[in-house]
Amino acid sequence: MDCSICSSMPFILRPPRNTICGACYEGARNVITLMNKLENDHSKGGDNKASNIPIASSPNSCKASSVFHPQPLANLTKWITSLKDIEDDLNKKISFLSGLVVTFREQIHTDIQLKPGNNGHCIPAHRALLAARSEIFKNMLDSDGCKAPPSDTITLPELNTEELESLLEFLYSGNLPSDKLEKHAYSLFVAADKYEIPYLQEFCERFLLNSLNASNALEILEISDICSNKILKETSLNFIVRNMEDIVFSARYEVFAPKNPHLGVQITRAFLVDAKSRRINGPQPHANQVGWMNDLKDKKLSFLSGLVEAFKEQIHTDIQLKPGNNGPCIPAHRVILASRSEIFKNMLDSDDCKAPVPPSHTITLPELNSEELKSLLEFLYSGTLPLDKLEKHVNSLLIAADKYGIQFLQEFCQCYLLNSLNVSNVLDVLETSEARSNKELKESAMNFIFRNMEDVVLSDQYEALAAKNPQLLMQITKGYFMNARSEKVSQALDRHESEDEELSDSDETDDDSEASEEHDDREWQMQVTTSLGRLEVQSQRIANRLDRMAGTLDRIETMLTTLVHNQQQPPPPQ
């Protein structure tokens, strides 16, 4: 059927507007349903996933403000763009938190050895990360056997070397390449269950459900039974029942059945129940294998942010950070500092920080007080900050981010400042941007000042800035007058363009009037010509009638002449 929306025909030849194909109808219906759902969620409290990210946790929250107020369908494009901005911010945060994988690959400041079960070589790792990712690992590391120096080793007997490397890569990055996941999914799933790593368990579960087929269904059923995973077991069992003939008569089933007799019984019973149900109710639609799954991105973010607990509880810390106000030292982890900042990494690689008892060593950050240092560390561990802390320490954190090369924190603070500019803080923001040579932030602050010049100049902060930084004050004054001049020039140009447009419009009007007159003349000429033609035809008709009348008169005259002539002759003799 031709569609008024997606048809390739020219617009004038398309069917009526109420003619629509099935694909366009479904697409429009889905969009309307999505918008209605989001508006309903917002009216209930705005706790949907799209709006679940607080303003303080998204560096581009100034772009995404419209997400929290769903608009009608007409603004759908703008709303989708805002969602994309939040998605980009989420990816940046995940990338920032995933930077720990470099410290694993390069073995930076490792303090524990993990040994695989196949007598392979030991793999260095970090106690703090293992403790943050798994409560089981935390208990193992807290035992007396693991409180010695970094030479101590933990053995994971159920994993070979490649599997252990894949497990550690996931613990550091929250992700795995598809080839490694495909190769080690079963062993990683068992390890996730044994060491209580829920995110890895769900990650492997999703992969196994998406890759379920006749060749691996029995293995997945066996693994799900070992790990007591109800969803995976039910899904694989239903798949086997639907493909009973192909699976039961395969060589894999002959190996599987003697090893797992209880699962063989469950398969047979499930097949009989399904057959009975089909006889009574008819064929039932199959459940979507991945319909239960939610997007794992939020869970990945939570998984990667778990290290903040190791910071708050001071688990296996190995370095002390000292604030500049002579406050108490704050314990931290070398691996976090080294992964978040190249500057910190170089500082920790210096000779002063390589003594055998690391926790006794201290790094001083003179530009931060105790509260600011705690906020900096919390961000380095979690990738976010509560709004009250961000509002209080944003300027000092921006300076620290610039000094220590923490780009994500710099973007985070900068966007918060851009989104919260007001008369009371714009001069502080301008001063900070000037000190850190931040061009974008300085331009935004300057433009805000120019738009609110009277309020800013009459404030107490302006007097303080004049006394403290007269050079910056001069830039504001010059910039304001230059901006005013450019606005006047722009207004003059606009007026000139407006006059040109009016003249152009008048010329067009004159041209139109001339064209109209020419059209009227042509029309009048056509009317005159038509009238003359009609008169000529009528004249011809009258002439023809006159000719006929003349002929008739001639005949009458002839008849009268004959009659008179007959009367004048003498009568014949009697």
Structure notes:
By secondary structure, this protein is mostly helical. It has four domains: 11-97, no CATH class; 100-281, 2-Layer Sandwich (Potassium Channel Kv1.1, Chain A), CATH 3.30.710.10; 306-406, Potassium Channel Kv1.1, Chain A, CATH 3.30.710.10; 421-504, Serine Threonine Protein Phosphatase 5, Tetratricopeptide repeat (Alpha Horseshoe), CATH 1.25.40. 65% of the residues lie in helices and 4% in strands. It contains 25 helices and six strands. Strand 1 and strand 2 (123-125) form a beta hairpin. Mean pLDDT is 77; it is low at 46-57, 59-71, 286-294 and 355-359.
Number of strands: 6
CATH class of the largest domain, named Alpha Beta
> Separation of termini?
109 Å
Mean pLDDT: 77
State the low-pLDDT regions, or none.
46-57, 59-71, 286-294, 355-359
